[in-house]
């Protein structure tokens, strides 16, 4: 990863240097393990001088001659590929990936005096794409499929029918639709793939829907539990059972507070002990390898209750919401006339009616993102 950041991205906050994607102003990557233990990195990269989604949309809508659209799509088509390169067809060109797995060997010798260097690189890239980027459907693709009559669709959105001959721009909405020459090939950058020699995916965040989708993906991804649901419940059940067994041997039962503390402690220990770690993760921790990569340093800030109250008052000042102010409710109660006796208070709750609020999903969080 350090070689990727230094050589391919060419990030340097003290020098005006450009990498494969341009001058990188910031990056952040998080390392995680798949279900089978393979380590991989999710990274977001910010390009210096790049337009944000709103600016791109404005430029597209105001681009009467289409010159900006042509230049933008040309850059994206040159950066992102999603097809298997053609075979150069020269049987005399041999590369190590012909006889070995493409990920286990290096590419061809990049000696500039080799007249067949271009053909060798194309053949090697073809081998890497076929080994690393080609998707084959399996049961994992349809694990969320509920069965007929629901259509059976790959959850990775990879299908032979996903074909688009050329990149286009919607002049009314400013939405970018990049070309897709092979629906079963993940997006890749040829130079990156040739150097990294592993599966990769690359996406350009250049429209509002894409930005919102990546925002949702990141927030959902970083908050998901590393434990599977069935493992978590099994650990909790084990903790409760052990607490009951230990309490049975005591002369006097624990009080409510002590029992609650003991239960929380045993639950924490049980969930930690049941966490599954792959050998790659263990080796990474023991060798003190990074679990994230960042171009900037961040400082943890203690956020006590008084700071939170100041923040809330600032938000209320900038965007007043009287209906959410509990102080108004208190004042209204205090200013209300004396309540009548209990026997004269009408029953405002119909016990026989269906209360729709009981059926609402209370475990849902709605995010509203506003772009200035």
UniProtKB/TrEMBL annotation:
Pfam families: Helitron_like_N
Protein name stated in the entry: Helitron helicase-like domain-containing protein
Residue ranges of every copy of the Helitron helicase-like domain listed in the record: 3-45
Biased composition (Basic and acidic residues): 317-328
Coiled coil: none
Biased composition (Acidic residues): 336-363
InterPro entries (UniProt xref): Helitron_helicase-like (IPR025476)
